[in-house]
From TrEMBL, chains A, B:
Highest taxon of source: Bacteria
Record's keyword terms, sorted: DNA-binding, Repressor, Transcription, Transcription regulation
Domain (HTH cro/C1-type) ranges: 3-46
Keyword check for Transcription: yes
Organism of origin: Mangrovibacterium diazotrophicum
InterPro entries according to UniProt: Cro/C1-type_HTH, HTH_LacI, LacI/GalR-like_sensor, Lambda_DNA-bd_dom_sf, Peripla_BP_I
Cited PROSITE patterns: HTH_CROC1 (PS50943), HTH_LACI_1 (PS00356), HTH_LACI_2 (PS50932)
Gene Ontology terms, MF aspect: DNA-binding transcription factor activity; transcription cis-regulatory region binding
Any single Pfam family the record assigns to this protein: LacI
Keyword check for Repeat: no
Domain HTH lacI-type: 2-56
CDD domains: HTH_LacI, PBP1_LacI_sugar_binding-like
Protein's UniProt name: LacI family transcriptional regulator
DNA sequence: ATGAAAGCGCTAACAT
DNA sequence: ATGTTAGCGCTTTCAT
């Protein structure tokens, strides 16, 4: 790979001038500019992003970190797609850090990202009291949180109206006539899990339905937990007639168990999932679900981050996107 | 962030000595080592991976590029997980480049990766004649291909026995008694699409079944193409009694159409998919599928890449993993 | 309008 | 065993 020096030599100018035309800064004589452009072309010169990053400490490195809890969850894949599109359009590139709900791994990745001199970070922190992410924000790195905020910390957040969405979904179930609606929640440490649970509780109460605490079980947000909890619920002497599942993976786990028992959805048990998937119509019956605009969450987060990199002083924004109840046939 | 210089000053030594203890190279007096370690701790010093990368041109940068055609395809997500695990264990970090089957985007990303001075690349090239990836290999960057090779080029590849797997799958369908088995293929430019088609053809012929060319349709490997082609097939005057779908996304698209028409699987039409998903049991009925060991493909590729980075002279390996027919209830 | 030179944080000769 | 020094490829004053 040719370096700026070689370009400068070939064009018979100094590297400073080359740098100037590259950053189309200030006034450069049209003639010399042409000479330089020619040399660049001939040498197939491409600037080293590494050197650039080393030199200019802020925002010019075109490198973003993305920290997500679980790449196997389709929700985060879609978020990632949104981020990636914005990043790509702005000549940024992404270091992907999937910490698989493992806080040790999260800590490692965060250290590495710092030492990679990223220009900004999009993160779904392990929980809202995540000291590691908080420290990074305090250190002045531009950060945008997705799906979860940071308690007591002013930071950009893009998320969805979890409580209201859950409330609306459960209300829908109630109106459909379901009485014993169980909720399989995600990790209680995750704020969105708690909000969805709260929405569930509120809806039940507001509609005068009895709140059977045995019907509320929180797992660890995984497929396996979806299976386990569903088993448990279905084994009850008085099992639920409907399931409100707390995320994508839980929903899928629940479906596996229900299918395994040859139960009919929604006749024997109805299912309404939080989180939609692009292929929810491929399920049989098609899944009724709360659709978070995952791609858009990622896109917005990317935009906010790039804004913040350019203008670190801009006041923080909490952007709440609306989710949508996709009524299909499982409830 | 503290720099090596500050550490050196605090410990009262030169930066060279600091560098030595960091790379636990050569002999350093135990006493000074302690002093330095102490200073490092006190300053919370972390080496800059950027500076390191700029300086030492080969393999020390701990940065890997991953180039994949479609992050929305669960197969690639699992591959990515495998790569990521190996990378993480070896202190490498990943720049994720999803080119969404768009060759312009692929080209852009490849350029950027070069200028990021990555130590190695794992790629699923757009096709086997991909000049851009070929050039990178020729330039001497360590590269491992997954899922697809590079025609006329000696390069490490990790893939699956596509032809045999398809052959086996279709034979299974035939033995089950299906006669009019349709194949919805992926992009003909992708080698694995062609191999799976060939496996299909061979199986049909070897079992003395008529090869109705109307039953063989190649799309673009997407969910949408899965839907379109399935529509077309089901609208035939003499529709197929079984579907052999060419990848994950196609399968899901096909299922949506089949469900939409209230057709029973496998009674009205059987489905066998190439590519399994972690949640295939959540489908109703559970999907019979050819399971590629996607995670392991990623893991192996990661291992091969790190080996090659350490030893660029090692002869190339074509590693063919076995896929497995998961017989469930859709066929 | 252009060049010279310092320096980002580190590695790797080369000295001592 | 440790220090000095010359870069890696670039940006950015400060001169001219």
């Amino acid at each position: 790979m040719a370096s700026m020096n070689e370009v400068a030599k070939r064009a018979g100018v100094s590297i400073a001038t080359v740098s100037r035309v590259l950053n189309n800064s200030e006034s450069v004589n049209e003639e010399t500019r042409m000479k330089i452009l020619k040399a660049i072309k001939e040498l197939k010169y491409q600037p080293s992003r590494v050197a650039k990053r080393l030199r200019s400490k802020s925002g010019a490195g075109n490198l973003l970190g993305v920290l997500i809890p679980d790449i196997q969850n389709p929700f985060y894949v879609d978020v990632l797609r949104g981020i990636e599109d914005v990043a790509y359009q702005n000549n940024y590139v992404i270091i992907m850090c999937n910490f698989s709900q493992d806080e040790k791994k999260e800590a490692m990745y965060l250290e590495i990202l710092e030492s990679e001199a990223i220009d900004g970070l999009i993160a779904a922190p392990a929980h809202e009291d995540d000291q590691r992410v908080k420290k990074i924000v305090r250190n002045g790195l531009p950060v945008v949180c997705v799906d979860r905020g940071l308690k007591g910390m002013d930071v950009d957040v893009v998320w969805v109206n979890n409580l209201e969405s859950a409330y609306q979904a459960v209300s829908f179930m109630i109106e459909k006539g379901y009485k014993r609606i169980a909720h399989i929640g995600g990790l209680p440490t995750i704020p969105s899990s708690r909000l969805r649970l709260e929405g569930y509780r509120n809806a039940m109460q507001d509609h005068g339905l009895e709140l059977d605490e045995n019907l509320i079980i929180q797992g660890d947000s995984s497929y396996a937990s979806g299976m386990q909890v569903t088993e448990k619920l279905l084994n009850m002497k008085n099992p639920p007639d409907a399931l409100f599942t707390g995320n994508n993976l839980i929903t899928l786990g629940a479906l596996e168990v229900i299918n395994g028992r040859k139960l009919q959805i929604p006749k024997d048990i109805a299912v309404l999932g939080f989180d939609d998937m692009n292929w929810s119509n491929a399920l049989n019956p098609p899944l009724t679900a709360v659709r978070q605009p995952a791609y858009e969450i990622g896109k917005r987060a990317g935009e906010l981050l790039i804004q913040r990199i350019k203008d670190p002083k801009r006041p923080c924004i909490h952007m709440t996107l609306n989710s949508e109840l996709k009524v299909r046939h499982s409830c």
